[in-house]
């Protein structure tokens, strides 16, 4: 490009010399004519962008916040070299470094790598490729755009993965490596042993005791192959932002940790996303394929600014889940939507299934509660106190219906939900 710039400067200098040597009016016309000729010649000599051929390769998925690369191959079947600038345009949320200097000799091809670092979940689709081919003098250029489709799916980041090892260690203690002395509808008989002080008398096996010299008790272990149904409420309440992300993103992170943990426990995990219609469903996946299916199903989901149809959501769960299961509903604890939506149909769900309601709390509320610096801070504290009291009342009402509630800030919700699942396992309620 430096050579091109020098040629252009030499051409302009020559035109000025011609203008100075001729009378004023004639000189101006001469300079204009010379410049027009130079621009026309430069435009003719610039490589054509229309016959260029493009192809893509590279990453098709990436976790939110991580880098990825997409390679664009430019082939020039024309008779002149194409040199200039190329813009590989992507949506702003793709975080693309999309401008490239390009030089493709005739009959050859060049590979250009566009680096992306997405800032939002979902499918990020390439817009178009625009090439500006500059002439040898640098005075004129040809420009054209081409559609070169490519999509990168931005997956949930799964930050809560860091909590998995500690929860798996606790799961191993419940899963037969050390016997658990519990009894309930969600347990399987493990073995017999002698009675010790503190054992539940209901676990005494009287037939085995009659045959032995000591009192014998049954030991139980958590039952495997249970059914866990994760239900994401994608309605209006999920759109509220907590920090830099909507509540839905924090709910997804908690759902992913619980799904992987339950899968490792031998349970079957399904996912439903619902507002006024079914937005996504994952059924029948297990093992390593489960996480892949879940993140791909979650990636394109965005909150809908509508009130969730709780009756339709519960009906969808009951239709898809015949036997007794653990249903985990990730939604808000706002009183009004629950009063009008979930509570009227809650009994039909709790009669057949164990239910956990998990909600994302806003840490800003706790900060506002402590504010007393000025009049505005006092009003903020009063509003935060009212919000906290309403959530507590909703939690107590859900508890009276036998519903477990997990209410925590985004960073604490995933491990808290996993701990509640393990507690249900240990108590024999799963």
Automatic annotation (TrEMBL):
<feature type="domain" description="DUF58">
    <location>
        <begin position="192"/>
        <end position="391"/>
    </location>
</feature>
<dbReference type="Pfam" id="PF01882">
    <property type="entry name" value="DUF58"/>
</dbReference>
<dbReference type="InterPro" id="IPR002881">
    <property type="entry name" value="DUF58"/>
</dbReference>
<protein>
    <submittedName>
        <fullName>DUF58 domain-containing protein</fullName>
    </submittedName>
</protein>
